[in-house]
Design brief:
Elements (H helix, E strand, L loop, with lengths): L4 E6 L3 H15 L4 E7 L14 H15 L14 E5 L31 H15 L9 E4 L5 H9 L4 H4 L9 H6 L8 E2 L2 E2 L1 H13 L1 H7 L1 H12 L5
Parallel strand pairs: 1-2, 1-3, 3-4
Antiparallel strand pairs: 5-6
Helix pairs in contact: 1-7, 4-7, 4-8, 8-9
């Protein structure tokens, strides 16, 4: 029997990790794997013990480069993980590095605007920027980008509440603030309360999200893209 795959997740927050580890399990189709929260680090209660958000991912990428002394692909971290998934939501296109005073001497590539649809015009540019953070011209062989548009909550909404007017609308990936739809659900179904994501609710519904992943792929082009790119790099047994 082969050893379990060890897959690291570099994500914006704890709920993103909960969703993606479940989706990855679905894509592995029963193959055993160990999900590792690389960024942010999570406690046993799934609370972040290190900073989250997109700026923390930028800083993590720059740390990867500093540790490697060059391109990120030479970092020893790849020796401890079979794959690394890095998630950035497409809303980041409109953000500024000055949002985080920890960032010194940032590049001059944010914010930017691209028409949506298609969602890919924005996510393609965002991926180029992420490669710059890593001092890379192309993705290292063990790395997969995950770039939901406009946020991963779009995938959650489509997975769990496909009849919702927002979820069923044309070009759902181009609509902003799917979080408001999740917050507006009846109390028993509410994943976001008072603007805060309920990690317990996300964990309770993570299997449902994975089970309905095919309908998310049909409605969300970036979900389909992530699926194809992830499956393409799964190591052989």
């Amino acid at each position: 029997m082969s050893n379990p795959l060890r897959i690291g997740f570099v994500v914006e927050g704890p709920t993103d990790f909960v969703v993606l580890e479940s989706v990855v399990a679905k894509l592995l189709d029963g193959r055993e794997y160990e999900p590792v929260a690389v960024q942010p680090l999570l406690s046993d209660a799934f609370a972040a013990t290190t900073g989250g958000g997109w700026t923390s991912i930028y800083l993590w990428c720059r740390q990867m480069v500093d540790q490697a002394g060059g391109a990120a692909r030479t970092n020893p971290l790849f020796g401890f993980h079979d794959l690394l998934v890095i998630q950035i939501d497409a809303y980041v296109a409109g953000k500024n590095y000055t949002d985080d005073d920890r960032i010194q001497n940032p590049p001059n590539d944010l914010p930017f605007t691209r028409a949506c649809p298609p969602a890919r015009d924005t996510t393609d540019r965002l991926r180029e920027i992420m490669l710059g953070w890593l001092n890379e011209g192309s993705l290292p062989p063990q790395m997969i980008f995950c770039t939901p548009s406009k946020s991963l909550e779009t995938w959650v909404l489509v997975a769990l509440f496909p009849q919702n007017q927002f979820a069923a609308s044309a070009n759902v990936e181009c609509r902003i603030n799917p979080e408001a739809q999740l917050q507006a659900r009846p109390l028993a179904q509410r994943l976001i309360r008072s603007g805060k994501k309920d990690i317990t609710k996300y964990r309770e519904r993570s299997t449902d999200i994975a089970t309905t992943w095919d309908q998310v792929r049909q409605r969300c082009t970036e979900a389909e893209r992530f699926t194809q790119e992830f499956v393409a790099v799964i190591p052989a047994n």
